[in-house]
Predict the 3D structure of the following.
Amino acid sequence: MHDIGKLDAYTSDPLDIAMTDAGRLIGEIPLGYYRVRRELDAMPGFPAETAQALLHIILSHHGRLEHGSPVLPATREATLVHFLDNLGGRLGAYDRLEKTLPPGTDWSAFDRVVGGGAFFGAGTGTPPAVAGPAPLLDGPPPFAAPRGTPAERPAVAASAAFHAA
């Protein structure tokens, strides 16, 4: 429902998708707000708080003022709709890029939505198998828990003594 304004903002001809005059002059978000607002006003007894929450989602779903939302998401629900809408757009960019990828090509060209090239792995959309971890030179991996007592670890002992003083 957050994109319902697109019904009035774009033409319905699937061969020639273009913005309508209303879409260009008013924008999809206000058009969606007005469409839903009219329907809500025609429903006697519709809870005012629910109407406000729904209209806020429509107005804020682009997430930023510079992206066309007249207000920022200010509720959990509005934030969720914004992030899901954004995620759908980003994942759609991968679909679009993969369709135009020449056979045998691993990487797409730079894409503004992705923020770089997209990797599709050997032209199949599957990253190549990764070999096991590199062998360690000496001692535990850097993320391992320290061993021994604080007294056996000079840096820990010095820190403990400093903070105890």
Q: What stands out?
A: Residues 76-100 form the longest helix (25 residues). The chain has a mean pLDDT of 83. The chain is about 45% helix and 0% strand. Helices lie at 6-9, 21-25, 28-41, 48-60, 76-100, 121-125, 154-164.
